[in-house]
Amino acid sequence: QAKNQGLKTLFFNDKIGRQARERFALETALQTAIHNEQLRLYLQPQYDNQCQITGFEALVRWQHPEQGLLLPGRFIPIAEQSGLIIDLERWVLKQALMAQQQMSSPQAHYPISVNISAKHFATEDFIATISELLSETQANPGLLVLEITESLVIENLEAVVEKMDVLTQIGIQFSIDDFGTGYSSLVYLRKLPIAEVKIDRSFIASAPNDAVDAEIVAMIHKMADFLNLRTVAEGVETQEHVNFLSERFPNMLHQGFFYSRPQPIQQILDQLTQQALL
Ligand code: C2E
Ligand code: CA
Ligand code: CA
Ligand code: CA
Fold it and tell me: In this protein, which residues make up the domain named EAL (predicted)?
């Protein structure tokens, strides 16, 4: 009894104990948030070298009742560890597919990219989930891009490719996110049925002033080009980035704060309407 009490005190008094409780509280609150319309869909546009919008990336936010608007860095890791990520991404997928419908007109339509965690992709009913959401929303699978990371294929490459092939056959495209970090390998570009590579923003940030990073970007781009894959530069923040990238890689797409921050869907719709792009 006394020993138990001692452990309890230790647990609740130290810093780790406090963090664990905060985490647990956030996890419980996140569960509520997903089902009580506290999540928000933000979209960030991507551009070609003519400054035309080519598509959007869906990025989730959490409108926390007390803490305000939270960025994914605060809750995605918790969602991944607790398994809530599956419900969360289901919500994001559905919102993104509905947004895709709202952004479609006879003269324009825009693909939307959605981030998919390795945990979600690995679920047995991932394909069924996607098909269900597509039929529920009547969205066009040809305008859905799923952003995955290489952490997906650490286990069984064949099984991953097989699953991706099924989805590719119904028109869905895949993009490799944060390429160049982690276990990135040019082999994945060849083996995975992907349409797009997103070059991690850490390389883009330094490329204009760092010959090694510039060469890494050039190498990824060259390989992607050769395989007919689109490349997207992430984290394009400055005019210097834009100039450097458009000069060296004219067909690379750009995404970043230089052009636009992620914005709520309604703001995007208003802008597209104003610019007569819808
Ligand atoms: P990511 O997939 O690499 O998304 C791009 C992140 O870079 C976004 O951060 C975006 O706001 C930020 N960003 C865009 N342009 C710039 C720029 O010019 N400079 C800088 N410094 N940052 C820029 P955000 O929205 O905070 O999201 C962070 C991460 O959270 C995402 O990184 C993604 O890994 C994850 N995430 C967001 N939504 C989802 C989701 O629905 N599911 C999953 N699994 N992860 C998500
Ligand atoms: Ca992404
Ligand atoms: Ca990324
Ligand atoms: Ca990232």
Answer: 23-276
